[in-house]
Amino acid sequence: MNSRLTSRQQKFAEIVAAKEGELTLRECAEEAGYPAGSSHSRAWELLNPRKSPHVLAEVKRRRDELNEKYRVDYGRHLKSLAKLRDESLANGAYSAAVNAERLRGQAAGLYVSKSEIRVGSIDSLSRAEVEKELAEIRKTLGDDSKIIQGEVIESRSEVLEAAKDEQSVH
After folding, report:
1. What is the CA 111 to chain-centroid distance, rounded?
2. pTM score, two decimals?
3. I want to staple 97 with a disulfide (CB 3.0 to 4.6 A). Which of 17, 75, 80, 88 is the partner?
4. Domain boundaries, the chain
């Protein structure tokens, strides 16, 4: 078993690590210089730990190298945003500079984003809670109309017609 990589094996390992998810293994083998007719079986052999552990080790080494190069951490993130801010300012792109600085502030925790999520519906309220909410709505709208007691009808137009009929009777 050969533990040194050939130039094609080296190229294959680099392509697999760099273009993972973009190319199939067959395409990686072809791009590395293996013949199209046998590229599928060559890719399988090259990534088989029993047949080519040295190629797998090189793929892992290249993946680790790329992960380190492109990893995101707090310091690197803030530094990149500061660089973008400074370059934007130098080019007169003030909007981009402000946006980069705002993102730096968000990453540093200087801005707090508040949002309120309400869960539930009128079905989850008791009758007393519904009546209290309706009273609040009436107070804010200045609505002095009567509460119509009766059966709830599915169609809105039918509800309006039923309400008009009941009001005309009184």
Report:
1. 20
2. 0.51
3. 88
4. 7-70, 74-108, 122-169
